């Protein structure tokens, strides 16, 4: 005899069952819920257990793995998300009836799309029948158990014995029976509800005014015990005390910020702002939203940060807030046009309010935008005007930031010697602060040295910068790639190819792996030059065959075309097309990039066109203390003049270039080209001694590089397929000038 749902049996069915229970030949299988059984049903169960020696089997709730197995066994054919079994288990507590009813409603209400929402945080739906069953279970509890379960529902995850004693005004011992009753009724497991359904039903049974009062009591109790601020804020919010919730949300946000949890910090600041708005505290709301923008600038993409900025703009209450908003906007947009438009009026507001810190911050940003748009001298003037205040009043970190910005502006303004002094101050500040920006300061100083033509010094600084990164970093950050790229570039300019090539290859691979398109493109360009100087034009052409990863940036596309033209020229192919396209992309003939790319062009365009280009570039470079570039430009001007049969016109260029070569080295330009051009010019003018010396100097440089710095597998190509080397060494051997 099998009886299902004995707890629902009517009197007639129970009478028949009791009669049959006395028949020994009948075997029994009875399924029931033990709580709330009618007296007759309980008597039948007792009889079967005692008189018929029946075994009582209590079914445990399904574990999470069993819930997953059950869902899988249903063969629903829906693309259900992996997290659905967990949501079902949390909702039902492993009760198969509750679980299946919830799953049925999920599928009826939109299938997999609805289940996805449920997994992401929504409550799963509950059928009327299941809700009635749960309500019935709570209705059968004793008054003290009901009080305890309602307290637990309001307190949520903060529920504890100590909290219950405080809120209910009783001792722990007096809660023992009620606690045991809730455990026996499968309502509470330890301090947690058996499942969401019971929690929701218990919470719904508390009238809203009572619930608000209970939330306030819980918040007070948690605050007295130094509880988690976010939980305190939650209870103050639910109690209707927004004035107390706002500061608690702020404290919770601050804790997340200290732990580096920026996303949560931003979310908590938004909750704080909403609480302050509800409490009518406009100033506090504005401050919370402005802080949220600053946080978003550290972790979020630009659209998200701009959205936070626009939200903060709706809450501004005075000029102080407006200044902070405008300053943050300038910093996060990183858009030169925006900075050039908004920085002057914002600076004026900061000066009027006497906010010297903000004046410094904005001036640094403004000077950077001015430098990038060809107005570096204006930036130098603005920063120089602040130097007295910074050095007298500013913090050590502000002094470092100011000297760094001034160095960059001076560099762009062509004042390299002054820029190096400012970079040295930046390095000194970074060392004193034990700052993680020391590597960056050293690297920037190295680049200014390289622009000036002090390439050996640049390499020394680059080696130190790389060592600092390796000591302080994890070996995979962007600073490591920047330092590898820069040092490889400097070492290649010195002819130290055995060190340069591995660094450039590692940087290119690292940038590609981390999706650093601009870095990867620069590494490929620098590496291509190394291959050309090693007599490997095919490798350079292969490296430059495709478009640059960041080819949407006109400057980068122009650079790719220029280096591709250089490689084609070295391989004996026509290079004028990509070279002219590169120059046309720059637009502004006075731009730094156009000027430096004209150096490459002078090797490719006809000599009568290349000579004035090179001469103009030499004058431009000398005026800006870019002595390495001036050396290269004078050398090219001499080469172009010589190609036109004008050796005497070439001679002054050679003389200046050789003088510069005593103290400086060129960037990108291959130094032995100077000695080979000088030898040809001196030879054409009948200056045998000067020709001999040029051949000796050039051949000695090439031989030393081949012996010490060229990998063995490239030695032959370096000496024979690098056209400059081959012609220079051949002439040196013929003149008895070979080392």
Structure characterization notes:
This protein is an all-alpha fold and 739 residues long. Among the domains are: 2-50, no CATH class; 231-317; 630-734, no CATH class. The protein contains 39 helices and four strands. Helix 14 packs antiparallel against helix 15 (262-278) and helix 22 (396-412) packs antiparallel against helix 23. The longest helix is centred in the C-terminal third of the chain and has 21 residues, at 688-708. The protein is elongated, with a radius of gyration of 40 Å. Residues 110-121 have low confidence and may be disordered.
Short note summarizing the structure:
The chain is mainly alpha-helical.
Observed structural traits:
single chain, 739 residues, mainly alpha, two-stranded parallel sheet, two-stranded antiparallel ribbon, 73% helix
The radius of gyration over CA amounts to 40 Å
Q: Label the structural class.
A: mainly alpha
Query: Helical element count?
Result: 39
The largest sheet has its strands arranged as 1-2
Largest sheet: number of strands, sense, barrel closure: 2 strands, parallel
Spans of at least 5 consecutive residues with low confidence: 110-121
Q: Work out the helicity level.
A: over 70%
Shape summary: elongated
Kindly report how far apart the N and C termini lie.
Answer: 111 Å
Portion of residues in beta strands equals: under 5%
| Overall residue-averaged pLDDT value | 87
Number of strands: 4
Summarize the topology:
Layout: E1 2-3, H1 11-20, E2 29-30, H2 39-50, H3 64-73, H4 84-92, H5 96-108, H6 111-119, H7 128-139, H8 143-155, H9 161-168, H10 176-184, E3 188-189, E4 192-193, H11 196-204, H12 208-224, H13 229-238, H14 242-258, H15 262-278, H16 282-299, H17 302-313, H18 319-333, H19 336-353, H20 356-372, H21 376-393, H22 396-412, H23 416-432, H24 438-452, H25 455-472, H26 478-493, H27 497-513, H28 517-533, H29 537-543, H30 554-570, H31 576-586, H32 592-601, H33 607-623, H34 627-643, H35 647-661, H36 672-684, H37 688-708, H38 715-720, H39 723-734
